[in-house]
C-alpha cells in the first residue's frame, strides 16, 4: 500500500528520486503512464497486470473505451530504478504532467502519483474546498 506525500526535484537529466518508502513495493521495474487530472500514474508490475486485465474487458466497440485504452497504453512506459533510486521520466510524460523541476509524489493505495508541484497545489486547494461534501456523498462511514 502506498501512502504519504513527498517533495522532490528533477535533476537536469529529467531524473526523479523515488521516495525510499515506495521503492520496495514498486520493485526495480515498474510502469509509468499518463494519469488523470494532470499527473502521472506509477504502477508496480502486479498492479499493472491487474489493471490491464480490467481494461481488456472494456468493449472495444465503444468509442470512449477505445480512446481511453489508446491514451492509457500509448502513454505508458516501463521504467527501471537506478542504484540511487532514481527514474528517468520521458519528455512526453513530463510535458503531459507539466513537470519542469519541483515535484510532489503521493501514495494512493495501489499506485503512486507524480505531480508538478504547481499542479498538485492547485488541485489540492480545489479538492480541499469540497473534501467534506465529497465524503458525505460517498457515505464512507468513517
| Strand order, sheet with most strands | 1-7-8-4-3-5
Give the CATH level 1 class: Alpha Beta
Shape: globular
Q: What is the CATH-assigned architecture? A: 3-Layer(aba) Sandwich
Helical stretch tally: 6
Radius of gyration: 16 Å
Kindly report the CATH topology.
Answer: Chemotaxis protein chec
Question: How large is the share of residues in beta strands?
Answer: 25-35%
Domains, number: 1
Q: Considering the protein shown, what is the CATH homologous superfamily?
A: Transcriptional regulator MraZ domain
Note the gap between the termini. 19 Å
The biggest beta sheet reads:
6 strands, antiparallel
Q: What is the N-to-C order of secondary-structure elements (H for helix, E for strand)?
A: EEHEEHHEEHEEHH
Structural class: alpha+beta
Q: What is the overall pLDDT average?
A: 93
Count the beta strands: 8
Low-pLDDT parts are: none
Helix percentage range: 40-55%
What can you see in these coordinates?
The protein is α+β, with helices and mostly antiparallel strands. The chain has one domain: Transcriptional regulator MraZ domain (Chemotaxis protein chec), CATH 3.40.1550. The protein has 6 helices and 8 strands. The protein has helices spanning 20-26, 45-56, 63-74, 91-96, 117-129, 131-138; strands at 5-9, 15-17, 29-34, 40-44, 77-80, 86-88, 102-108, 111-116. It has a 6-stranded antiparallel beta sheet. The longest helix has 13 residues, at 117-129. The two termini are 19 Å apart. The mean pLDDT is 93.
Write the layout of secondary structure elements.
Blueprint: E1 5-9, E2 15-17, H1 20-26, E3 29-34, E4 40-44, H2 45-56, H3 63-74, E5 77-80, E6 86-88, H4 91-96, E7 102-108, E8 111-116, H5 117-129, H6 131-138
Antiparallel strand pairs: 1-7, 2-6, 3-4, 3-5, 4-8, 7-8
